[in-house]
C-alpha cells in the first residue's frame, strides 16, 4: 500500500496567495528532496523557492506511523493549507461570592495557541495516530450521511487516565489537528471548552441559566455547516459526582435539574454532523453517564514509557539549546541508538546518559517530566549556562528528588 505523506502548510497570516498556488510550490519543493524530516516544523525560509519563502510560515510532514524521516518518492503526498488564528480564547465567566468563575472558553481554530501542541505530545503504540483515524472516520461517516441508527457513531471521544498525562492537551491538539486535516470540508474550527468543574463546584442557582445560554451559543455555532465545533468537557466525572450528590441530598434538589439539563443538551448535540465532543476523566472506573457510556472512542492515557520519556526529555534539551541555556550538542533518536546496539562512543555517550535517565523516570507523569529540567536548573545548577553532561547530572538529581516526594 502506498503511504500517505501528510503535509500541513501554515500560510503566513498576511499572505493572500491562493491555496492551490501554495500547494503546487510546496509539492514541487518536496519532490526535489531526497528525504524529509517528519513531525518537526520546517520553516518556510528553509526552502529555496521564492513563493514558499515569502508565503509559508512552516511546513509539517507526517506519516501515519512514528518514523522520524522518510523518502518523499513513492509516497502519496496530501497537502493541507491553513492560516493560524491569532486571537486568544474568549472566556465566559459566572459571578460568585469570590468573584468571577470561568465556566467556558471559546476559541477559533487553528489557533496560534495550539500550534505544535500535537507534535509535542509523545505516546507509544500509536495512540495519536489511532485517535486521528477514528476522528477522520467520524467525519467521513457524517459526510456521507451514514445512518447513526444503523451504524453506531456518537461523535464522542473519552480520554481517561491518571492526572498529568496530557489528556486535556491531547483533546485540544486533536481539535486543532482535525481542523487542519479537514480543511477542505470546514472553513474553521470552534473549540468550546466547558469547565464543568467550576460550573458545578457551587452556587447552582445561576448554573441553570448559564447552561442554557452556553448551549444556545453552541447551537448557533453549529448552524454554520462550514464550522467544525469541538466541545471539550474536562473532568467529565464531576458531572456524575454532581448528580450523585443531588440524589443523596447533599446538594439542593433543583440542582439535579441543572445537571440533567446539561446531559440532555449534550445528548442533543451529537445529532449535528459538524460536532465533535471531547471528554476527559481522571477516574478509570466506569463513569455513570449515559452520553460517555456511548463514546465511540474510549482511550486510556497512561504514564509515558521510557521511549516516550526519552522523546519528552530530548525535546526539552533541544529547547534549552535553542535558548542558549545548554551548549549545542547532538541528541540522537532512540532508533539510531538501537541500530548501533546501544554501543557507547564519544558521539553516543550523552544520548545514552539520557536513555538511562528516561528509564529512571518511569512512573512519573508527563506533567512532572516537563518540570524536571526546570527543577534541575533551579536546584542543582549554579551557573546560567552549562553543558549537556552537566545538565543531565542535574536532571538525575532532580528526578531522584521528585521520585522520593511522589512515592513516599
Ligand atoms: N505524553 C506526554 N508527552 C508530552 N507532554 C506531556 C505528556 N503528558 C503530559 N504532558 C505535559 O504535561 C502537561 C499537563 O498536561 P494536561 O494538563 O493535558 O494533562 P491532563 O491529563 O489533562 O491532567 P489532569 O488529569 O490533571 O487534568 C502539559 O504541559 C503537557 O504538555
Ligand atoms: Mg486535564
From TrEMBL:
Question: Listed GO cellular component terms?
Answer: chromosome; nucleus
**Gene Ontology MF terms:** ATP binding; ATP hydrolysis activity
SMART domains, per the entry: AAA
PROSITE patterns linked to this entry: AAA (PS00674)
AAA+ ATPase domain span = 153-305
Q: Which GO terms describe its biological process?
A: meiotic recombination checkpoint signaling; reciprocal meiotic recombination
Name listed for the protein in its UniProt record? Pachytene checkpoint protein 2 homolog
Which InterPro entries does the UniProt entry name for this protein? Answer: AAA+_ATPase, ATPase_AAA_core, ATPase_AAA_CS, ClpA/B, P-loop_NTPase, Pch2-like, Pch2_C
Pfam families named among the record's database cross-references: AAA, AAA_lid_TRIP13_C, TRIP13_N
> Whose protein is this, by species?
Cephus cinctus (Wheat stem sawfly)
Gene3D superfamilies xref list: P-loop containing nucleotide triphosphate hydrolases (3.40.50.300)
Query: What keywords sit in the KW lines?
Result: ATP-binding, Meiosis, Nucleotide-binding
Family, according to the entry, reads as follows: Belongs to the AAA ATPase family. PCH2 subfamily.
Amino acid at each position: 500500500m502506498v503511504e500517505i505523506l501528510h503535509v500541513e502548510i501554515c500560510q503566513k497570516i498576511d499572505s493572500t496567495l491562493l491555496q492551490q498556488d501554495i500547494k503546487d510550490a510546496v509539492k514541487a519543493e518536496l519532490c526535489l528532496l531526497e528525504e524529509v524530516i517528519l513531525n518537526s516544523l520546517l520553516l518556510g525560509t528553509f526552502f529555496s523557492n521564492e513563493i514558499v519563502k515569502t508565503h509559508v510560515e512552516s511546513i509539517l510532514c507526517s506519516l501515519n506511523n512514528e518514523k522520524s524521516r522518510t523518502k518523499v518518492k513513492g509516497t502519496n503526498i496530501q497537502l493541507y493549507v491553513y492560516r493560524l488564528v491569532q486571537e486568544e480564547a474568549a472566556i465566559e465567566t459566572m459571578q460568585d461570592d469570590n468573584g468571577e468563575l470561568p465556566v467556558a472558553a471559546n476559541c477559533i481554530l487553528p489557533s496560534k495557541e495550539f500550534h505544535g501542541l500535537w507534535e509535542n505530545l509523545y505516546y507509544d503504540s500509536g495512540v495519536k495516530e489511532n485517535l486521528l483515524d477514528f476522528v477522520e472516520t467520524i467525519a467521513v461517516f457524517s459526510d456521507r450521511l451514514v445512518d447513526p441508527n444503523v451504524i453506531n457513531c456518537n461523535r464522542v471521544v473519552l480520554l481517561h487516565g491518571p492526572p498529568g498525562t496530557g489528556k486535556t492537551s491531547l483533546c485540544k491538539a486533536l481539535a486543532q489537528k482535525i481542523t487542519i486535516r479537514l480543511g477542505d470540508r470546514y472553513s474553521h474550527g470552534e473549540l468550546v471548552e466547558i469547565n464543568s468543574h467550576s460550573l458545578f463546584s457551587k452556587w447552582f442557582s445561576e448554573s441553570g441559566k448559564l447552561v442554557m445560554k452556553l448551549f444556545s451559543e453552541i447551537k448557533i455555532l453549529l448552524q454554520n455547516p462550514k464550522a467544525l465545533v469541538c466541545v471539550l468537557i474536562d473532568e467529565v466525572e464531576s458531572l456524575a459526582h454532581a448528580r450523585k450528590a443531588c440524589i443523596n441530598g447533599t446538594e439542593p434538589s433543583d440542582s439535579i435539574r441543572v445537571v440533567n439539563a446539561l446531559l440532555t443538551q449534550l445528548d442533543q448535540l451529537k445529532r449535528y454532523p459538524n460536532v465533535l465532543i471531547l471528554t476527559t476523566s481522571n477516574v478509570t472506573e466506569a463513569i455513570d453517564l449515559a452520553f460517555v457510556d456511548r463514546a465511540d472512542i474510549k482511550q486510556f492515557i497512561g504514564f509515558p514509557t521510557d521511549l516516550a520519556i526519552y522523546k519528552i526529555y530530548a525535546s526539552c534539551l533541544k529547547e534549552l539549546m535553542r535558548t542558549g541555556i545548554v551548549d549545542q550538542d547532538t541528541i540522537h533518536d532512540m532508533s539510531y541508538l538501537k541500530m548501533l546496539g546501544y554501543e557507547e562512543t564519544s558521539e553516543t555517550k550523552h544520548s545514552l546518559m539520557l536513555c538511562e535517565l528516561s528509564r529512571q523516570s518511569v512512573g512519573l507523569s508527563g506533567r512532572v517530566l516537563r518540570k524536571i529540567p526546570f527543577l534541575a536548573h533551579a536546584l542543582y545548577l549554579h551557573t546560567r549556562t552549562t553543558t549537556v553532561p552537566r545538565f543531565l547530572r542535574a536532571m538525575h538529581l532532580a528526578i531522584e528528588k521528585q521520585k522520593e516526594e511522589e512515592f513516599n
